[in-house]
Every structure is written in C-alpha cells, then in structure tokens.
Amino acid sequence: MATATAPRNDLYLSVLAGRAISALADLAGDPSTWNDRIERDLRGGIVYCQTVRAQGILVLRKPSSGWNALKRSVEDISEGAASSGDVSAEAQGVERYLSELVSSANRAPQMADLLVAIEFIGKTATDR
Amino acid sequence: MSVTPEVRPVDPALERRRFLYVLSEALEKFSRLRRILKRQQVFIRAEHGEEMSVTAVDELIDYLEEHCEMFLGNSDRVAHLLRGKQLNEAEIKAVHRSLGILTVHTLQVHELLLLLPREAARPQASFLLKDCFGSKDLKASIVLTNLFSAYEYRFEDILEKVNVEQEERLTLTQGGNVLCQAFGDKDNPLAWAVLAHEYGHVLDDHDQISKKILQPDRAAGQTDESTREAEPDWGAAVVAETVADFIAAHVLGPASLMPILFVEMMYPKLRGVSRTSAGHPPTPVRVRLVSGYLRELGVSTSDFDPVLEAYELDYARKLQDLGKVERARLEGIETGAEKLLSPLAKAIALSVGTLGLRRFEDQNIGRARALQETLASRQPISSCRSRGEGEISAGLSALKAGEATPSQVYEVLAGLDEVPVPGSEILTAGWLYRLSSFEDVLMKTFLGGAERKTDLEVYSNYAEKTDGLLLKSLELADVHAEVLRRLKLA
C-alpha cells in the first residue's frame, strides 16, 4: 500500500471554518468574552475567507467530487454551483467583519452580523 | 397530505427531536468510520512494523480527529440543546453548521475507503436476506463500497455507464447480482434494510414487475415535459424504485424506511435535482407510498411515526434553503412522481404480493417490542419461546392427572421450545431499542459544564455494543434455524 510521506497539514480549511464558527458562537453567547483561542480561531476564519475569495467556491467543492470518479461519470457536478462572483463578494464582507472583530474595531458584535458570518462560513464549508 | 410538506411554525419539541436524530446519526457514522480506520491501522502496523512513520490511514484518522475536535468546541451548546435549554439563534446555527461540517467531511473520508485495503461484508447480512426472502441461495453477492454506490446507484446502473459493449456487460453480470453495502454500514445491521431494497431490484429484474406495470404511454402522460426531456427513462426508474421499496417493506415492515431517512436527515443539505438521475422518487413520496402500502397490509407505523414526523420537518426546512429555481424543479419532480406513482401503487402492491415472500405483519412488531426489552438488558435476541407464558400455563392447567395422555403433555410442553427469531423482528427490535435509548446515551456523552469533558467514546461504545448484540442475534438465529432444519430432515 502506498504511504503518505508529506508532513501533516493542520490547516484543513474546513477545520478553520468550523473553529471560526465556534468562536463566533462564543461571542454570540457572551459578547464580553475574549481570549486567545477566540482570537486565533477568528484569524483562522479570515484565512478561510481569503482562500474562498482567492480560489472561489470550487476549491471547497473539488475534493469531494474529485475523489469520486464514479460520481463524476454519472452526475453533473457543476449543477447548482454558486456563482464565484457572489461568493467572492460575500467572503470579502465576512472577512472584513472578522478583521474588525480581531482588531478591536468592533467588539460589540450584533446578532445579525454574527448570523451572516456563521451562515456564510457554514454554508461554504459544507457545499459538496 | 400535500405533495410538498409546508414549513410549519417552530415546534421546539419536534426541532429538538430532529436535532437528536441528526446528531446521533452523525456521531454513529463518525465513530464507525474511525473504528474501521483504526482496524486498518492495526493491519498496516502488523504488516510493516514501525518503519512506516506516517501512513495514509494515519492521515485520515488525524483528519477525522481534527474535525471531531472542531465540533466538540460546541460541546456546551450541544449539552444545552439536548436538555432543552435556551440558546440564541447564532448559537443554535453554529451547532448545526459545525455538525454539518463534521458530517460532510466524515463522509468524504468514507468515500476514500475505496482506495484502502478491503474488508469483507459480514455473513450475517446474507443470513438476514436469506431469512427475509425465504431463499437458500440469494444468487447475489454483498460487496462493501462507498455511500454513493450503496444508497444512490445500483451496481447495474454503474455498469450501464461504463463504456463497454452490451454483450460484455451481459457477461459481467452472469456471476450473479451485486448488492452494494456502504463500508460504514458493515457492522451496523440496522442499516441493512437498504440491502432488502437492493434485493428487491434483483427480484424486480427477474420478474420484470416494473416493466409490466408501466405502460410507456402511461409514463409519458404523467411526467412533466422538462423531466421527460432530462431523463427519458425516469418513469421506468421511479416505478422500479417503488417496487424495490414495497418489496423491502413487505419483508421488513416500517424499519425498511429508517436507514435512508436517518442518512438524509444527517446531510446538511438536500442533494437536489441531480439525485433524481439515480431514479429515486423524492424521498417524501417514497415515505408516503410505503406508509400507505404498510397500512394496506395492516402493519402499523406508529412506533416509527416520530422519525417520519421529524423527517418531514427536516425535508421542508432543507427545501426552503434551496435556491428558487432548484426548489421549483424539485417540487415539480415531486408532483410528477406522485402523479405517476399514486395510481400505480395498487398494481405494484398486487405484484409484490404474488412473489410469495415472507410477509412482515403487525404481530411481528408486537413481538419486536418485547424483544426490545431483552436488548435493553444487553442480551441477544436470537430465539424466543414458541408460545407465550399465558398459553403454556393455561395448557398445563388443563391437563388432568391420570387422564392426560403422554402426547397431550408433550404437546403442551412443546410450547417451552425455543424457536429462532425472524431476522425482520431482530431488525425491528434493534430500531425500537435504538429509538428508545439513544437520547439517554447522548445525554451521558454531552454532560455540559467546563469541568466535564465530552467523551465521544460513550456513544461509540453504545453503538458498538448494540451492533454486537444484533450481529450475535442474527448469527445465532441462523444457526438455530439450520439445526432445526437438519433435525426435521433427520
């Protein structure tokens, strides 16, 4: 059996997305909460948004469809793919919001903003 | 019932139940997959020793653990939701989205198992099918494969897509039929109802049931233009799926619906229109048709109604989340499927009835309820007395000293004989046990509070023990039936 010799990569995009969601939920539960973990995970969320913005939603769709040659042969995987322009704009908005949270420019998060950010990150990280 | 379930106002109890089902299924899939990978890790270590520092399997385990840890960042919120405590909208959404990420990425790893050393399907899966279909030789092999092949496409469908000549294709299927089972379902008999559906296709192919039922002009008149253009064989495919659904329900009862409903609830999104290319009618249509068929057979679905209700809500919510165009297309397909299949349901039921299969009856559910109690006491349920205690007791009381003949006495005492429990009852009892017990185990898994660490092993062990009991039950019931058969022959 072939073995993986590459070093371990602890920057799985989906994990960054999930951690950012948890950090946003922590702030939603108690807006005065702030600690190193929340800051680290929000920064991870920024990296996530930058990647989505730079490469479009297909970067997240590729692994699942690419792994399954069988699926490609019988289904049209492009169906339902979001327009990369829309996704990029949304990613930029969420990235800006996360940056404001991290830079202390906005430490009183509004529920509506948190919901938008959680929804965007969650939706793009589960799109397959 | 309307064709498309309307989005009902928020019912906290039903929303909570839906969340419980999704969470339990996601954790089960995760822990089963991790178990398979750890087993593979042991094989690789045994073969190669420690000289291989990091293998592909190690990477996959690491990937799963990272996602699990990510989800456990929400442990307190999950504990709150389980206990019906108040969370704000963003917190609730965060739990659902994180669980969705865990699920999707666990399932991606599942697809990769196609590339790893294979394991074989459990013999108990064949025991179950042989018992349900009353056949000594299934003329079908069960192979482990990905979720996609197990739940969406048949092996035959894939052969259709492979670029080989028709004659070669026929040769390929001469070795018998292939029933696809997901790797993650290998040790989980509760998911094996899917195999009964797959075997239903085999019987349908053999007896040409769906082809006889579906007149081409009838299909053309009932499906809408866009569907016909997109999928010219769509009418034939949905009828074939319904025949397979009815066959599975005929032999297994309402439990035949459970695996697909749990799997669909677990996915964070509806898989949209592309899924109809697999020929499945939208699942709500399947549920309505199978429930109606079971009612006609006099089999109650009441023990499973909480799941059906939660599924209906889940589907409605996910439909709402789709884009306008895709939602309209899916609703159109649902209407088309309902229009085509509803008038054919009676004919399909009649044809399935003539196959001479062992029929699941309401009394099987009654016995399964009693067996569920045995499972709860962590005992296997492979056999039970041929008669109830009341009947035996009445028989003994009726015997009079000095008057009863030895044969009369033996006849009463024969009621104490143990008989093997049918596979369909074992599966139904397993589902009833799961539905009655999993919530308590989730509570023990997610204790909540900063000092109380969430231990997924609690849920994992529960799933593993239940698997073990059901596997043992199916195996022992088969051995028991074989012993009785040989005694009878002797």
End-to-end Cα distance of chain A, whole Å, is 28 Å
Query: H/E series of chain B, N to C?
Result: HHHHHEHHHEHHHHHHHHHHHEHHEHH
Counting structural domains of chain A, the number is 1
Structural class of chain A: mainly alpha
Helix content of chain A: 55-70%
What does the overall shape of chain A look like? Answer: globular
Which bin fits the share of residues in helices of chain B?
55-70%
Whole-number mean pLDDT of chain A: 77
Number of strands of chain B: 4
Please give the order of strands in the largest beta sheet of chain B.
Answer: 1-2
Strand content of chain A: under 5%
Number of strands of chain A: 0
Primary descriptors:
heterodimer, A: 128 residues, mainly alpha, 6 helices, 0% strand, globular, B: 490 residues, 3 domains, two-stranded parallel sheet, two-stranded antiparallel ribbon, 23 helices, 4 strands, 66% helix
Can you summarize this structure?
The complex is a heterodimer of chains A (about 130) and B (about 500). Chain A contains 6 helices and no strands.
Could you explain the architecture of this structure?
The complex is a heterodimer of chains A (128) and B (490). Helices cover 68% and strands 0% of the residues of chain A. Chain A is mainly α and 128 residues long. In chain A, helix 1 (13-29) runs antiparallel to helix 6 (111-125), helix 2 (36-55) packs antiparallel against helix 5 (84-102) and helix 5 crosses helix 6. Chain A is globular. Chain B is globular, with a radius of gyration of 24 Å. Chain B has helices spanning 12-48, 56-72, 75-82, 89-112, 123-133, 147-151, 155-161, 166-172, 193-207, 209-213, 216-222, 225-230, 234-252, 258-266, 283-296, 305-321, 324-341, 345-353, 362-376, 389-398, 406-413, 423-445, 456-489; strands at residues 140-145, 177-182, 383-385, 418-420. Chain B is 66% helix and 4% strand. The chains are: A mainly alpha (128), B mainly alpha (490). Chains A and B meet through helix 1, helix 3, helix 4 and helix 6 of A and helix 2, helix 4 and helix 7 of B.
